[in-house]
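Subject: mismatched residue count in predicted assembly?

I count 770 residues in my input, but I want to confirm that the predicted structure covers every chain. Input:
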Amino acid sequence: MSDIHANSVAFVRTEEVPTAPPPSNAAGPAKWIKDNLFATPLNGLLTLVALYFIYAILSSALPWILGGIWNAPSLSACRDILDGASAACFAVLTERWNQLLFGFQYPDDQYWRPGLAFILLFIAAAPVLFFDLPRKLLAFTALYPFIAYYLLWGGTIFVPILALVGVAGGFMVYQRLVAGSFAAGFFGGIAAAFAIWYIGGLLIPDNASENAALSAVPSRYMGGFMLNMMLGVTCVSLSVPIGIALALGRQSSMPLIKWICVIFIEFIRGVPLITLLFVANVMLAYFFPPGSGVDLFLRVVIMITMFSAAYIAEVIRGGLAALPKGQYEAADSLGLDYAQAMRLIILPQALKISIPGIVNVAVGLFKDTTLVSVISMFDMIGMIRGPILASTEWNGVYWELFGFAALLFFVVCYGISQYSQWLERRLATDHR
Amino acid sequence: MKKSVILGALTIAGLSAGAAAAGTLDDVKARGKLNCGVTTGLVGFAAPDANGEWKGFDVAVCRAVAAAVLNDPNAVEFVPTTGKTRFTALASGEIDMLARNTTWTFSRDVDLKFTFTGVNYYDGQGFMVPKALGVSSAKDLDGATVCIQTGTTTELNLADFFRANNISYEPVPIETNAEGQQQYLAGACDTYTTDASGLASTRATFENPGDHVLLPEIISKEPLGPLVRHGDDEWGDVVRWTLNALVTAEELGVTSTNINEMAASTENPEVARLLGTEGTLGEMLGLDADWAKRAIAAGGNYGEVFAKNIGEETPIGLARGLNAQWTNGGLIYSPPFR
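Triage response: the counts match. Full output below for your records.
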């Protein structure tokens, strides 16, 4: 071929021309800016307007934040230091730091206990959240609720041990009976656990808490962000299994179970959470003799769990409905019974579809825990609105406190959201 | 143990409900703690300090009762209540008494079945205006914009006042005191109206409190006081006369500093009866002779409590005004100890 050209044209390039850099307006930051910010006149105008707004916000917010006062005993002292200048008074955060995190009544020499429980929470949650980790770590996860209870509430160690023995006993009965039928195992296990708790409860002496290694801290002393975390973690982890059970119950072919689940879900979803909280705080007190009422924390946990379980049930029902009928028929044709079919085929797929919805409910639930401030529990918002803003030193500080609360909640909720996106990518087995 | 209490409570709830009928005074003594309902936080009246200790004008009443009954001003379990939960907490027996700047009204006393045991603060609705506005009387506020909390009695009082004086106003509805504070400072309204004590404490938090004035008119009556449940008059008497003891102590010049001296060497028979060196007043009340002495020693007499928490020396800076002793032209007046 080259011979032909050698005769017909004067010059043939034999080596490749070295690639020249692209023109400066077609590469690098200049091109990016042109393509993305100033593609059309309208785009350019919008960019300029947006830049102006960003500048306007930052130029007033940044000096306010950077010039903040971190050390002052009161708002008036802070203003004296500022001497007319406009800047944040973050001293309220440093002075009331422990109150914001732990409430104002948790004994201050015991702060290491919730701190330790918080760190252990990550170790306990890790094998559940990241299933590549060794499965043996789940043993610690199973123990964690009892350890955390003991750390937070203290008192006699017999209470968490008894609770653990009850759960273990119930599980053993379940294992024994489940071979016969799932229902017998399930209800037999629950009955065994309650029997152990009741008998064990009679055995523990009434004054066992008095000289305990960790001093007992009553529930009403819990507060601050710790209370939000406690409510959020407990209610989310309880409401997911209950929500699954409700979703399956709603699809059941047994009319009694189906209607119980339908009525429960529809009733709870039709009532505002704040109403349920008022019922927990105010109405239930009428049903118990004075002084022996069920712990307020427990009442609130029950109400919030019921509320979010109803929502999660509907989310999971959406996941179940999205599965093709063939999946159910395939499970049947393999000869699996109901429990096996659900556990091995239906639920893994349905739950995967439901992840964004479940996370959505979980994030909403975590933020809803701040509602307990209206029934005079001192969660983070309750601490800010009540004791801190009502103290003579700090009355009048708003932006700093609520900004800090927003920041803490944002960190947690953003973390949950990022985890769920990772989980979706990790579980993506189809080829889209 | 805790779990069994919970489970047990479910089953025996009905059985033991009758046991609560015993007198509150005996319950408190047996428990060794007074359950006292307070606000979740109101500047000067009740709020925990940086160490988590409750302080304030209403808190002092709780501590005085605890000192009188239990001989320990710290034997109080403070139960924070909101405006919405306070009455059910008292009616259900969760708290023994409520000291939460609650206005004594007919319907609360009669219809809600509570007994107000006295008045520890006479409040009333007032107006705050910027000094620059140059207004010296609420009657000059014709055509003004007024920041007002919606759904409160203050809203109704405001309408009544302006109609009675035949002047007009434009309401700027707000939800909470914090919002009102911000709106007023931002200039959204010419004047802000709520209880005078609230106005004073709000103004105390401003950067330049001197730029704002409270107008002299008080347009409503808000007598605030502690209350107990209907039907337990012995307990109501304890709370009522503890408050009266603080008031009488101020009238007779008994303070927390000179109380021991007065008890030992007083010539005045009423002081002697009050402090239990003469007569059997404590016994009549179901307490010992020193009850009032302890109540006064706990936080001082009425005047000391006032000065320490909300008086002119504090950032809140309330003048005695209506809350001066009757001998000084105020309304604070205790029936005699006799």
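Chain A touches chain B through 59 residues (CB under 8 Å). Marking this ticket as 'not a bug'.
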